[in-house]
Design goal:
It is a single chain. 50% of the residues lie in helices and 9% in strands. With 361 residues, the protein is of the alpha+beta class. The strands form 2 sheets. A 5-stranded mixed β-sheet has the order 3-5-4-6-7. Strands 1-2 form a two-stranded antiparallel ribbon. The longest helix is centred in the middle third of the chain and has 32 residues. The relative contact order is 0.10. The N terminus is likely disordered.
Length: 361
């Protein structure tokens, strides 16, 4: 949210003190913030409003990062105050209170989880098995402690009636007719995904999106747009081919096939998949070969980059940026907040399988 420009005008106050009416001298009224002149080109000017129109969208990711940093700092300050109050009321020091509420609630570490993580990350751990095991145990304890601290924060905030009133930065995103989407067009939350069919992180986040669509059934609209990266030779044509499949009402089936076959995408394999999905392969091939949707995919790419999204996957949730294949909790936090802002009941949370965070640039 842009902070209004303010200025202090002393002229009238000084003239009034000298018993001279301000109206006796011609004086320009203070310009509205959006009409503030930020540049001159001869007799022409560029206003703050025009600059915002030009540069605003491309700054959205930066503004989101600033917003996230402010909210994190604000929450930490509030949490520290509430912890201090609770500790004093309990006759404990801050450290003693946190040990009681966080450290002491960490349970026994599951042996199966230790073995699983040691196997998964063996190359990154100490060569000594005992030391590697201890590294894994400490990491799992830290993870449990983080969960307990978040739970404590949530509880203290709820008890104190804490409200974060900062308004997140947003941009309006057009969803032209024919853009692939699922969920009602009137849904209160719209999640636009910019993705690459050959990006492994994009594939990993698809189950998370499916879980979100299930949990927020009727309240979430998922809009799919393309952002093929230069490193992926078939990503552009795959995006175009999916839109061609949409002409035969097979968009989402083909979308799923592409993500399941990322390493085997070619004109021939896509034609084979089209046939298996019951499409008219001649119509499909003609659509792909003629580049029917090349401009549509290019437009998606330009739009994503105008918002500062250059890696995949990238998301805009009600105009708010979320980058990378984030765990489901990152999506839920924004969606829940958006529903709460509109006074809409948040659906009960379901046990998810989080995707591995990451993105490709």
């Amino acid at each position: 949210m842009r902070t209004p420009w303010t200025g202090t005008l002393f002229g009238c106050a000084l003239l009034a003190a000298a018993s001279v009416a301000c109206a006796q001298e011609p004086a320009a009224a203070a310009a509205a913030p959006d009409q503030e002149v930020v540049a001159r080109i001869g007799d022409e000017v560029i206003t703050a409003a025009e600059l915002e129109t030009m540069a605003g969208p491309s700054l959205v990711k930066l503004r989101q990062d600033i917003y996230d940093m402010k909210v994190a700092q604000l929450k930490q300050q509030i949490f520290d105050r509430l912890v201090a109050e609770q500790a004093t009321a309990a006759g404990l020091t801050r450290a003693e209170y946190l040990k009681q509420q966080v450290d002491d609630k960490v349970g026994e570490i599951d042996e199966g989880e230790i073995v699983k993580l040691m196997s998964m990350y063996r190359s990154r751990l100490s060569q000594d098995d005992a030391q590697a095991r201890e590294q894994v145990i400490q990491a799992l304890k830290q993870q449990q402690m983080a969960v307990q601290q978040v739970a404590l924060m949530d509880r203290l905030f709820a008890e104190a009636g804490v409200e974060i009133l900062l308004e997140p930065p947003r941009v309006d995103i057009a969803v032209p007719a024919g853009t692939p989407s699922r969920g009602p067009a009137t849904a209160p939350v719209v999640m636009v995904e910019y993705t690459d069919y050959q990006c492994p992180y994009c594939a990993r986040v698809q189950p998370v999106i499916d879980q979100l669509m299930e949990r927020y059934d009727g309240k979430l609209r998922h809009v799919f747009k393309n952002l093929p990266l230069p490193m992926h030779a078939e990503a552009q044509v795959a995006g175009e081919a999916a839109l061609c499949a949409g002409d035969q009402d097979k968009y989402w089936e083909f979308h799923d096939w592409l993500f399941k076959n990322q390493r085997n995408i070619s004109r021939e394999t896509m034609l084979g998949a089209a046939g298996e999905l019951g499409m008219d392969t001649e119509l499909f091939a003609a659509c792909v070969d003629q580049g029917t949707y090349t401009e549509r995919v290019d437009a998606d790419m330009r739009e994503a980059r105008s918002f500062g999204i250059t890696g995949t996957p990238g998301f805009m949730i009600n105009g708010r940026v979320l980058s990378g294949a984030q765990p489901i909790e990152a999506f839920e936090a924004i969606i829940d907040e958006e529903l709460e802002r509109r006074g809409i009941e948040v659906p009960a949370k379901k046990a998810p399988e989080a995707a591995e965070a990451g993105s490709e640039e």
